[in-house]
């Protein structure tokens, strides 16, 4: 029976190959051709390596909405949209009709019952406890302490070593290691020390890249195809499986060590403890249920938060520094702002500053927003309605139809940002009074929108400002010429080949 189920997939792949050859001989157009049997899949495959720009080309030509028709038996009919009215409707006004749903959870199964993968009561519990913890005064102290500790003991020694050697290195890799160490210490009280001078290989840290590579792939190929790869343990599914093992081998022992510390704790003071509060949340969720597994709940909870804490912040910082190398005047203005706001003398290094002081860096904040506008870390949102719905654009969407929202495209829409939308201009975020302009989240969805707006937004800005200010003021980043810079065809848009740079210290430490 299983052999027969594979035959349609093989037929589709064969037909796709020959139509792809035919397409290559035709003049290129943005909209993919709707072929018999295979639908628009050949055009999607042909542009898979540039999927975000492919979506953008189509959406800008078609008025921000495009109906994609997949193979006849592939259940791949989709609506691509970057329409702010549709996004506001889906993510806010009619939020209850667009849960994550079973298909989303199937694609993101590796995240288990974490906050990004669940709906209803469990999502509300996750969100409530996480918001409560992040707003706690002691969390702010812990966050500041962890960030600066990782800066001083990890980031600065590594950058100093590369500056002294004068060698090139991958700045994206450095940021991924930084954010991984920081979020691991914050959540699990475990410092993996991946940001060390010899840059050790840690399977868990690198596993996040393999995970995001596989997740977008699952969005754009028929489910039967990636399920077959999963069964055969080949391709991206093999990498995803290996990442899953690496996550569990890192997180479960850290959980056990933390639980042991709590059991052996003798003092009775009311120390702030993220770990204990998540155990309380688990007990609330499983009242009367003896079949649950607290370690599984904690694993899912922390993996989701580590995914958010590592990938989004490191991605934003990577694109930010690439944009700075292309816009030296912006770098100069950021350096001048730091000098003025923190009253630094010429030749004095920038070291510690607290969260309140970080809010003085308005121009830096605007520059970070510009990087997030042009390269939102989570570039695509996947939705499907529970019940038939009519969007503000007039499109009818049914439960068997996927909706792919392109946040990447929204940063390139003249209707939202003007004719200079492709330019890197921090000034567009600064009001006449010198503060940060407010832009509705359904127009600037770098942190999502509606009830599922990222609850770590403030934490992300704090961390990015501390890292960015330290590097901009104390070092000069030089881009290695000749490298091709492009976003990965993944849910989280890293740089495909990393960001090769040299670093020069402005003032000896």
From TrEMBL:
Transmembrane feature ranges: 6-23
Biological processes per GO annotation: lipid metabolic process
Cited PANTHER family: CYTOCHROME P450
UniProt keyword annotations, A-Z: Heme, Iron, Membrane, Metal-binding, Monooxygenase, Oxidoreductase, Transmembrane, Transmembrane helix
Organism: Nicotiana tabacum (Common tobacco)
Name of the protein this chain belongs to: Alkane hydroxylase MAH1-like
Gene that encodes it: LOC107829550
Pfam families the record matches: p450
Cofactor: heme
Binding site residues for heme: 454
Superkingdom of the organism of origin: Eukaryota
Annotated family: Belongs to the cytochrome P450 family.
Gene Ontology MF, one: monooxygenase activity
């Amino acid at each position: 029976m299983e052999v027969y189920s594979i035959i349609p997939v093989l037929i589709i792949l064969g037909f796709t190959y020959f139509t792809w050859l035919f397409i290559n001989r035709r003049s290129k157009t943005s909209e993919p051709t709707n072929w018999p049997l295979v639908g628009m899949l050949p055009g999607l495959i042909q542009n898979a390596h540039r999927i975000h720009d492919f979506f953008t080309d189509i959406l800008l030509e078609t008025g921000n909405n495009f109906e994609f028709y997949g193979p006849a038996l592939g259940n791949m009919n989709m609506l691509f949209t970057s329409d702010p009215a549709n996004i506001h409707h889906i993510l806010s006004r009619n939020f209850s009709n667009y849960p994550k749903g079973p298909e989303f959870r199937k694609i993101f199964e590796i995240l288990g019952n974490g906050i990004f993968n669940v709906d209803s009561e469990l999502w509300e519990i996750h969100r409530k406890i996480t918001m409560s913890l992040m707003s706690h005064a002691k969390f702010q102290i812990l966050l500041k302490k962890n960030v600066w500790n990782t800066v001083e003991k990890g980031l600065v020694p590594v950058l100093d070593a590369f500056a002294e050697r004068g060698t090139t290195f991958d700045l994206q890799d450095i940021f991924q290691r930084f954010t991984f160490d920081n979020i691991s210490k914050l959540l699990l009280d475990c410092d993996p020390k991946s940001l060390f001078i010899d840059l050790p290989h840690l399977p868990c840290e690198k596993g996040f890249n393999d995970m995001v590579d596989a997740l977008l792939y699952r969005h754009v190929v028929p489910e039967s195809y990636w399920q077959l790869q999963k069964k055969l343990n080949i391709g991206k599914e093999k990498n995803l499986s290996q990442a899953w093992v690496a996550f569990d081998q890192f997180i479960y022992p850290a959980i056990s060590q933390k639980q042991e510390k709590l059991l052996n704790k003798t003092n009775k003071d009311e120390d702030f403890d993220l770990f204990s509060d998540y155990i309380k949340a688990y007990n609330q969720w499983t009242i009367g249920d003896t079949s649950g597994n607290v370690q599984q709940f904690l694993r899912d909870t922390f993996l989701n938060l580590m995914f958010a804490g590592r990938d989004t912040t490191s991605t934003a910082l990577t694109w930010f520094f690439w944009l700075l190398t292309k816009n030296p005047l912006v770098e100069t203005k950021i350096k001048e702002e730091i000098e003025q706001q923190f009253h630094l003398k010429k030749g004095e290094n920038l070291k510690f500053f607290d969260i309140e002081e970080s809010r003085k860096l308005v121009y830096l904040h605007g520059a970070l927003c510009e990087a997030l506008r042009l390269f939102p870390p989570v570039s695509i949102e996947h939705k499907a309605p529970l019940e038939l719905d009519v969007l503000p654009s007039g499109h009818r969407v049914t439960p068997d139809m996927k909706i792919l929202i392109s946040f990447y495209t929204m940063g390139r829409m003249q209707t939202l940002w003007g004719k200079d939308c492709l330019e890197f201009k921090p000034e567009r975020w600064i009001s006449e009074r010198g503060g940060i302009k407010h832009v509705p989240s359904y127009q600037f969805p770098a942190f999502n929108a509606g009830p599922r707006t990222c609850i770590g937004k403030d934490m992300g800005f704090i961390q990015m400002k501390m890292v960015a200010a330290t590097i901009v003021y104390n070092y000069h980043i030089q881009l290695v010429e000749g490298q091709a810079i492009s976003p990965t065809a993944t849910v989280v848009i890293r740089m495909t080949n990393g960001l090769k740079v040299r670093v020069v210290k402005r003032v000896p430490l």
